[in-house]
Write a structure and sequence with these properties.
With 164 residues, the protein is mainly α. It has two domains: 2-52, no CATH class; 61-163. Helix content is 82%, strand content 5%. It has six helices and two strands, in the order αααββααα. A two-stranded antiparallel sheet has the order 1-2. The radius of gyration is 34 Å and the shape is elongated. Keywords: Coiled coil.
Length: 164
């Protein structure tokens, strides 16, 4: 009731009355409609204060809007991190391809001096190590891509993200 008393003395009630009069609408109907809307809003606010935010069933658990937003934000962040990792892996793979091209060019050269052959052997060892590392990184990138494509979020993962 206190809310209705405060509102009855406000500018809003007066402006509604003036608008109703100017449009030739019954002022009592406008006031009744306004009072009904305010009672509904007051009931909503009172319910939220007593019971907290409403929760919605999602799968086998209930989540509030705030919890859902937090979960979605965490999932989006995880997806963005995976995308960044994939970009880095692609960059490494391109570097690996360039090293392979250089390796093939070096291998194709036949007339090398002894010094050039020693340098070539050192470079080949370095390239072989880089190739092995790049192959491992490529396998990891493929696994990440496969997992990302499956796009599966289990109930356990949702619970873990919520508790974090």
């Amino acid at each position: 009731m206190a809310i209705n008393q405060v509102i009855s003395n406000t500018h809003y009630r007066n402006s509604l009355s003036k608008k109703a009069e100017s449009q030739k609408v019954d002022v009592s109907e406008v006031e009744e409609s306004f009072n009904k809307a305010m009672k509904n809003y007051s009931a909503l606010v009172e319910n939220r204060l007593e019971n907290g935010e409403p929760s919605y069933p999602i799968g086998s658990c209930d989540m509030t809007q705030k919890e859902w937003d937090t979960l979605i934000t965490k999932i989006d962040t995880s997806i963005d991190q995976i995308k960044e990792e994939l970009k880095e892996r692609i960059k490494v793979l391109k570097e690996r391809e360039e090293k392979q091209r250089i390796y093939k060019e070096i291998k194709a050269e036949k007339d090398l001096t002894k010094k050039e052959r020693l340098e070539k052997e050192d470079l080949e060892k370095e390239l072989e190590g880089s190739l092995k590392k790049a192959e491992l990184e490529e396998k990891v990138a493929e696994d990440i891509i496969r997992v990302n494509q499956e796009n599966v979020v289990t109930k356990e993962q949702i619970k873990q993200l919520i508790t974090e």
